[in-house]
Design brief:
This protein is of the alpha+beta class. It has seven helices and six strands, in the order ααααβββααβββα.
Length: 230
């Protein structure tokens, strides 16, 4: 059964993973934008090549916290697994059909065909709370057979929109591959966007419809009289 949202797919890991993803993506964008500026290039092709670093940075951050990963054939891209869900961080191209065509490469398409990993293996937690211990005796013998035959891991697609000038948004959703090879999103949600500069400026200015006006202090000046004054 396909989860309705990333929160459903990731369970208790969702809040912690959300914060970690924002941190990783913002750090990588900063490095890529700086490199683009230093290069003085008129073209953004080099900036766009950060897609592989985004995958690697996310995978390393989660592996450092004890999470597992898998490699997608034939490209060999390593993708982390959280709560039996693949987490694929992807910088989108400026194309209205970019999402529907996400699985256009064989490697990405294979991300929708990965069977769940062994549930008896311990998984760490991003929630700060201890995970329940798995008890194999509580599961029927039919369970592993069903997983091996037709079940696949959900794919949580983390979509990054950016230019060398600005990181525009970070969004995530559960990606679903239809029979025509097109990708559709479930539970699409924005998890980060830049704050408006106008909001910051307005917060430092007192509203005109509140408080009491303060009258300016005017000091009367004494004028000397001359003999010709009437």
């Amino acid at each position: 059964m396909v989860p309705d949202s990333p929160a459903d797919a990731l369970g208790s890991h969702a809040p912690g993973l959300r914060d970690l993803l924002v941190e990783v993506v913002r750090a990588r964008h900063g490095l890529a934008a700086e490199a683009h500026l230093v290069s003085g290039s008129r073209y953004a092709m080099g900036f766009g090549s950060q897609w592989r670093d985004l995958l690697d940075d996310t995978c390393e951050a989660l592996k450092g916290r004890g999470f597992r990963s898998i490699k997608l054939a034939p490209g060999g891209h390593e993708v982390p697994v959280v709560n039996d869900s693949l987490v694929y961080v992807w910088r989108m191209s400026n194309n209205p059909k970019a999402v529907s065509g996400f699985a256009s490469s064989p490697t990405r398409k294979n991300g929708f065909m990965i069977a769940p990993l062994d549930p008896t293996l311990w998984e760490p937690s991003l929630s700060g709370e201890p995970e329940p211990v798995y008890d194999a005796s509580e599961e029927s013998e039919l369970g592993p057979v069903l997983r091996a035959v037709g079940d696949t891991m959900p794919l949580v697609l983390v979509m990054v929109e950016s230019t060398p000038r600005q990181l525009q948004s970070i969004e995530w959703a559960v990606a679903v591959l239809d029979v025509d090879g097109k990708v559709k999103l479930r539970g699409h949600e924005c998890i980060w966007e830049p704050e408006l500069a106008a909001d910051d400026a307005a917060s430092t200015v007192e509203s005109f419809d509140s408080g009491e006006p303060v009258a300016p202090v005017v000091e009367l000046q004494k004028q000397g009289r001359t003999p010709t004054d009437g």
